[in-house]
Amino acid sequence: MTETSDPRSGPPAPPFRVELIGPPRIFTPTGELSPSKPVVFGAALYLLLNRGRMVRRTELAMLLWPDADDSARGERMRWLVSQLKQCGFSVQARTPDITIAASDVVVDAEEVAQAATTQQPSTQRFASVLAAYEPHISDLFSRWLEESRNGLRLELLRRLVPWLAIARRSASWKETEQLARRTARARPEFPLPLEEAEHERALMPRARILAIYAHIALLENDDTTIAALLPRLLECFVPR
After folding, report:
1. How many angstroms separate the CA atoms of 144 and 22, rounded?
2. In terms of C-beta density within 10 A (0-12 exposed, 13-18 middle, 19 or more buried), how is residue 93 classed?
3. Are 97 and 105 in contact (CB under 8 A)?
4. Over the stretch 131-150, which tens digit does the pLDDT of each residue have?
5. What's the rounded Cα separation, in Å, for the pair 43 and 80?
């Protein structure tokens, strides 16, 4: 008797999963890929974030080993391909390109973005993107990594801002402060003078919320909002 799959079970999960919120993690068909192998992990991250695009082997080799000569890059690339195959990547032999199908990869940051209109923000997990991931592979790789990190942070921030606005309009200050803190974690380069230790106890939660809004407005070059927020912020900070 032939078994049939249950149509209610839905399609199978993609074979690759990339977690970018917090310390990065990569899950492949053979298990979790360890960052302790920096070149293999970095190459896998580059390929998975460029899913759906043909990545030339020469492009990947130049990103990882820009200072090596052609012979050394070719030899290292052959070693890398063998390592990727052991991790479950399907790499065709003797082809100049490596392509990962877009449908084969799921990324946690994109799941958050897609869930923004259907779930409560308090159920979502926000933290610094690619936290504590600073591999010393090459300057080219570091530049690509920083560009990717900034792009992902901005996308998460865009998803948080509407939630903040909804909570503010409904006067849900406790929820708004929680979201404001998550926004700060998603965009850690925001200066937050309100969080300085010497002022922490003297400031009301609303002041912290207003500061977050002011920094978002500055980022978006929203002069109207900045003009409206500045007097309210001064009321919180300037002693009477």
Report:
1. 18
2. exposed
3. no
4. 889 999 999 999 999 999 87
5. 8
Q: If pLDDT is split at 50, 70 and 90, which confidence band does 129 have? A: confident
CA-angle at 37, arms to 28 and 73, nearest 5°: 100
Please give the C-alpha separations between residue 52 and each of 97, 104, 105, 129, in angstroms, as whole numbers.
12, 9, 9, 22
Q: Which residue stretches of the chain are H helix?
A: 38-49, 57-64, 70-86, 108-115, 139-169, 173-186, 197-200, 205-219, 223-237
Give the SS3 label for residue 227.
Answer: helix
The first and second tokens of residue 81, run together, are 């391909």
Smallest CA-to-CA distance from 48 within 87, 8, 1 is with 87
What value does the CA radius of gyration of the chain take, rounded to a whole number of Å?
A: 23
171: left (phi over 0), alpha (psi -120 to 50) or beta: left
DSSP string, 101-156: -GGGEEEHHHHHHHHTTTS-GGGS----BTTT----S-HHHHHHHHHHHHHHHHHH
